[in-house]
């Protein structure tokens, strides 16, 4: 029996890869789509879905980059080269718009290629919708709706992980608690919309003040926390000074006379969650008792 090889030929005018034997390709297409569906059902990670999908789509189209844009943001395959012209496809299920799938290709797409891609899209959309639904629920469970910061539930999980790592690998860290001075007056005198604007501004200040290894959380109201992956008090002091400086430089915070009080403490391998939190809270109380708009260690 002769060996059968699937060969491709380049259409030089368009840079597309088409099966050398259209009949052979047509017969194997259902099996390829079934195989794709099986692999797509193994993950709820959008980037992993795109990577799996890209390996199949490259049998049809010669693209340099692949990207998916949705209400959750932008996801793309690793090493995606997006410098070539984009070709966008809306992905919809029963009047529900999932987002846009974008191929970056040097050459225009023919109607034949678009038709074959539509077949792949029909396989991709259901696993993709499941992944988007899962990530939306996950985001609601771990993110603060107003500021986009991690919430109290996520703080509890991360704190427990850091304490366990501290015990096992002797990697100390610190906890910083912050709240806003005079924030109640903003809500009382100017309304909750202005209060929300102040909270969002302070969230931006916090994100601008930390390093990539640190994590910011909002507990609710004007209560915030930062987990700092560093065992030195000097790091806490630098971050605290940066936060207070940016608050004073903010036109919005200055307009409503809002400042921040900060308390911080270092964790050790003997700590439990309640102990480290209680110490940082005492530091915050010291800052309040010292006239506010300052940072105190405990």
Automatic annotation (TrEMBL):
EC main group: transferase
Biological process according to GO: cell adhesion involved in single-species biofilm formation; negative regulation of bacterial-type flagellum-dependent cell motility
CC cofactor: Mg(2+)
This protein's name: diguanylate cyclase
Domain annotation GGDEF: ranges: 171-298
Gene3D superfamilies xref list: 3.30.70.270
GO molecular function, one term: diguanylate cyclase activity
Coiled coil segments of this chain: none
Assigned GO CC terms: plasma membrane
Pfam (any one): GGDEF
The organism's place on the tree of life at top rank: Bacteria
InterPro entries per record: Diguanylate_Cyclase, GGDEF_dom, Nucleotide_cyclase, Rev_trsase/Diguanyl_cyclase
Listed EC numbers: 2.7.7.65
């Amino acid at each position: 029996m002769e060996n059968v090889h699937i060969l491709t030929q380049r259409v030089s005018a368009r840079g597309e890869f088409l099966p050398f034997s259209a009949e052979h390709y047509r017969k194997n297409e259902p099996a390829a789509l079934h195989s794709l569906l099986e692999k797509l059902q193994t993950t709820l990670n959008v980037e992993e879905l795109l990577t799996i999908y890209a390996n199949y789509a490259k049998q049809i189209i010669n693209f340099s980059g692949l990207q998916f844009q949705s209400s959750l943001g932008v996801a793309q395959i690793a090493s995606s080269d997006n410098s070539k012209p984009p070709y966008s496809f809306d992905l919809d299920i029963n009047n529900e718009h999932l987002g846009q799938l974008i191929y970056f290709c040097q050459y225009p797409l023919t109607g034949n290629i678009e038709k074959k891609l539509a077949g792949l899209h029909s396989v991709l959309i259901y696993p993709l919708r499941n992944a988007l639904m899962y990530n939306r629920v996950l985001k609601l469970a771990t993110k603060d709706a107003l500021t986009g910061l991690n919430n109290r539930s996520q703080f509890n999980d991360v704190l427990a992980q850091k304490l366990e790592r501290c015990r096992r690998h002797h990697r100390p860290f610190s906890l910083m608690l912050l709240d806003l001075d005079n924030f109640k007056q903003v809500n009382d005198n100017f309304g909750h919309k202005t209060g929300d604007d102040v909270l969002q501004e302070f969230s931006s200040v916090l994100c601008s003040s930390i390093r990539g290894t640190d994590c910011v959380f909002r507990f609710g109201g004007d209560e915030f926390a930062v987990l700092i992956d560093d065992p030195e008090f000097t790091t806490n002091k630098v971050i605290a000074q940066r936060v207070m400086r940016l608050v004073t430089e903010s036109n919005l915070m200055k307009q409503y006379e809002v400042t921040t009080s900060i308390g911080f403490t270092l964790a050790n391998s003997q700590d439990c969650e309640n102990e480290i939190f209680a110490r940082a809270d005492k530091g915050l109380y010291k800052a309040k008792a010292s006239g506010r708009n300052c940072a105190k260690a405990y």
